[in-house]
Amino acid sequence: MRILKYGNINDMPKGWRTEEWHYKAYHMWYQMWIRVSTHPSYKDSRICDDYIYLSKYINDIPKLDNFDLFKENPKGWSIDKDIKIPGNKEYKFEALSLVTRSDNCKDRNNRCGNPFTTNNKCVRENSGLARRKPVRGINKKDGSILEFESINETRNSGFDPTGVCHCLRGKIKSHRGYYWEYI
């Protein structure tokens, strides 16, 4: 039996990855070990003795809430130890939850404060919503006006958002026959 630095993987029978969710569950188990072993914010956290073995962890996953949704589409899910029991520091069955990544991010942001200080992908995607600014394009020839809720919306009317952005920053004077300004 080969023992890895992060837990024991070879207690599983050969060919155990028969379903798509097995791979994702293994990945969540491995990342749990990485976080607890290396991440500074997890320095007080630990993993229960049962989850040293991947087999015990894989057997417990189907018993969690939301497993049916996770099994249908394993992408976009996370394992969490402190949504059920706030402030929990141990990965154990009683505390584990299968949650979507966005729900996990929202919970983390509620606990930790400012969402703009993290490098988490889903937080970065959602943070752009707060920074959207409406823009106005003024035709150079006839003075007609086009208004958009954001720079990205200009794409639907045939404008390049990068060109619009360059106009707004003063790098170029116009883009596709329009002057651009924030509303």
Secondary structure topology:
Elements: H1 20-38, E1 46-47, H2 54-60, H3 67-72, E2 77-80, E3 90-91, E4 97-100, H4 101-112, H5 121-127, E5 135-139, E6 145-148, H6 161-168, E7 178-182
Parallel strand pairs: 1-3
Antiparallel strand pairs: 2-4, 5-6, 5-7
How would you characterize the overall build of this protein?
This protein has two domains: 109 residues, no CATH class; 51 residues, Winged helix-like DNA-binding domain superfamily/Winged helix DNA-binding domain (Arc Repressor Mutant, subunit A), CATH 1.10.10.10. The chain is built from six helices and seven strands. By secondary structure, it is of the alpha+beta class. The mean pLDDT is 83. Helix content is 32%, strand content 14%.
